[in-house]
């Protein structure tokens, strides 16, 4: 249970009050058990950064890493062998490496042949795919993910479809804000509903709150963790 990213100036006067910016990651990591690394989506991050982030978090902490938009948005999953290798070579999280999430552009439609080739190119490990086009609501898509043990990302947002499907031996959820994208907080009732879904799935589940713009993500993550009987504070 955690948040999507940690570098949010909007949190400076709330969650990060009196916390120097250099300690934002370590501070957040004492309140959640996992974080998505988003910067890897925008540009290649050096291995030294991953080692630094790993060193600043508790021993049992887990990072999910967002795959580069060069692969998902520019190349649109085609001919990705070289950039995929370059990206994977930078990862240096050791035992704190969690799933790699591949967020697709809203304009990318489901193409079975393209997706099959992309999934075959992925290395061993946990991978999750977040499509944002309605055409992915298809049995052929779910079957491809199941064949490769890749998780479909269950995304909650007002601007792209929420397709609820579990396709791997783990589940992956991104909660972007139900009413206002990246903004709205989840109510007690909504958190209760998500907690029940996770119980019903009965498998390892990674949940990331992306409703970060007004600081709701941290409280929502802790609220959902409490509902699932998870500790909400870790110690370095």
Automatic annotation (TrEMBL):
This is DUF72 domain-containing protein. InterPro entries: DUF72 (IPR002763), UPF0759_sf (IPR036520). It comes from the Bacteria. Transmembrane segments: none annotated. It holds the Pfam family DUF72.
């Amino acid at each position: 249970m955690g948040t999507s990213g940690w570098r949010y100036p909007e949190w400076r006067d709330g969650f990060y009050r009196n916390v120097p910016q250099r300690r934002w990651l370590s501070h957040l990591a004492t309140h959640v058990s996992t974080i998505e690394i988003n910067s890897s989506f925008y540009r290649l991050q050096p291995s030294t950064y991953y080692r630094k982030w790993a060193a600043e978090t508790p021993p049992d902490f887990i990072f999910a890493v967002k795959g580069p938009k060069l692969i998902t948005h520019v190349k649109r999953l085609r001919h990705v062998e070289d950039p995929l290798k370059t990206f994977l070579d930078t990862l240096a999280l050791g035992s704190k490496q969690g799933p790699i999430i591949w967020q697709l552009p809203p304009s990318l439609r489901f193409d079975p042949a393209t997706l099959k080739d992309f999934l075959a190119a992925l290395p061993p490990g946990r991978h999750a795919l977040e499509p944002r086009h309605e055409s992915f609501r298809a049995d052929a898509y779910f079957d491809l993910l199941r064949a490769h043990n890749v998780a479909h990302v269950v995304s909650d947002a007002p601007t792209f479809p929420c397709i609820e499907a579990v396709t791997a031996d783990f589940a992956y959820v991104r909660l972007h804000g139900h009413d206002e994208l990246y903004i709205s907080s989840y109510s007690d009732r909504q958190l209760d509903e998500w907690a029940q879904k996770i119980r019903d799935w009965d498998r390892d589940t990674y949940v990331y709150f992306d409703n970060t713009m007004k600081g709701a993500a941290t409280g929502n993550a802790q609220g959902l963790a409490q509902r699932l009987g998870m500790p909400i504070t870790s110690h370095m």
